[in-house]
């Protein structure tokens, strides 16, 4: 499906129906905003931030999809507690083509992940780069997204093959960069930011995750990794700070229990994140 009808360059470009500038368009849906969530290295909370953003956008009344692009380390089904469900694979008419029906979370967020397509979630992916990027593109193109306001892509960490494919071939509107306030992490994150700049991709801002803990008794904010503030780290990265998030054991517990959406429905902790995010997109 192409959205050329509304394009001012209609008839003057050579994209041949693949979408603006030759970018891939989903076959079974129309998506207003496609945003990638990326980090320099694993374990800093990229998937957690993807899930929080998706839930907060859904709370604000938007229709949301999540593409788990971290093919070798998919964690979105576990985040939403839907890891015991399977995405349906449906034959398209009489053709050999298959489309995917995403699994819906309790809020109705549409999620597709390799872990929802394989029989067991522990099954590893032992594929080389080109196969992995092919699968990623197929999950993006062949999923029944229908009408979405936002598709959030949980990208693999770093500047590898899949990240490059997403930046080059998908109509990404921008990237949210997740980091922890540590000089070592910032150095690696900087590589991602420079890569995005070289590819002409807008960097929406940084989320400094696990930046501090709050004392349960006196409420004092204690920086965990660095004496520098999250703001100073974002300034060093040269991108706006969207939010500074604490280590939150209640959040972790709700993820472990599969009740994260309920936890987030009752929490207003991430209002700043969603406010700053939407401010930089609309
Ligand atoms: P990534 O996608 O960058 O690899 P994850 O989102 O999977 O990272 O998070 C890594 C681990 O850290 C997970 O166990 C997750 O539950 C935990 N985690 C992430 N963010 C927070 C947070 N703000 N508070 C507490 N634990 C967190």
From TrEMBL:
Chain residues that bind ATP: 40-47
Gene3D superfamilies on file: P-loop containing nucleotide triphosphate hydrolases
Annotated PROSITE patterns: MRP
Pfam families for this protein: ParA
GO biological process, one term: iron-sulfur cluster assembly
Alphabetical list of InterPro entries matching this protein: Mrp-like_CS, Mrp/NBP35_ATP-bd, NUBPL-like, P-loop_NTPase, YlxH/NBP35
Function: Binds and transfers iron-sulfur (Fe-S) clusters to target apoproteins. Can hydrolyze ATP.
Protein name: Iron-sulfur cluster carrier protein
């Amino acid at each position: 499906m192409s959205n050329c009808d509304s394009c001012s360059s209609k008839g003057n470009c050579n994209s041949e129906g693949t979408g603006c500038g030759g970018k891939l368009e989903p076959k079974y849906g129309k998506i207003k905003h496609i945003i990638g969530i990326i980090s320099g290295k694993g374990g800093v909370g990229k998937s957690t931030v993807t899930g929080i953003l998706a839930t907060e956008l859904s709370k604000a009344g938007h229709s949301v999809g999540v593409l788990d692009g971290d093919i070798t380390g998919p964690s979105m089904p576990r985040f939403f507690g839907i890891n015991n469900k399977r995405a349906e694979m449906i034959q398209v008419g009489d053709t050999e083509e298959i489309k995917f029906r995403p699994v819906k979370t309790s809020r109705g967020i549409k999620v597709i992940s390799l872990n929802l397509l394989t029989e067991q979630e522990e099954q590893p992916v032992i594929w080389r780069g080109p196969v992995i990027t092919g699968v990623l593109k197929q999950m993006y193109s062949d999923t029944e997204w229908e009408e979405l306001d936002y598709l959030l892509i949980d990208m693999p960490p770093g500047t590898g093959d899949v990240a490059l494919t997403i930046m080059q071939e998908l109509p990404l509107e921008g990237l949210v960069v997740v980091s922890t306030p540590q000089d070592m992490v910032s150095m690696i994150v900087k590589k991602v930011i420079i890569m995005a700049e070289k590819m002409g991709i807008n960097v929406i801002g940084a989320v400094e995750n696990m930046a501090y803990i709050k004392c349960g008794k006196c409420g004092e904010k204690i920086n965990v990794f660095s004496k520098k503030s999250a703001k100073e780290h974002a300034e060093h990265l040269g991108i706006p700070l969207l939010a500074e998030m604490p280590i939150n054991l209640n959040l972790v517990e709700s993820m472990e229990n599969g009740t994260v959406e309920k936890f987030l429905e009752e929490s207003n902790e991430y209002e700043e994140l969603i406010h700053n995010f939407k401010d930089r997109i609309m």
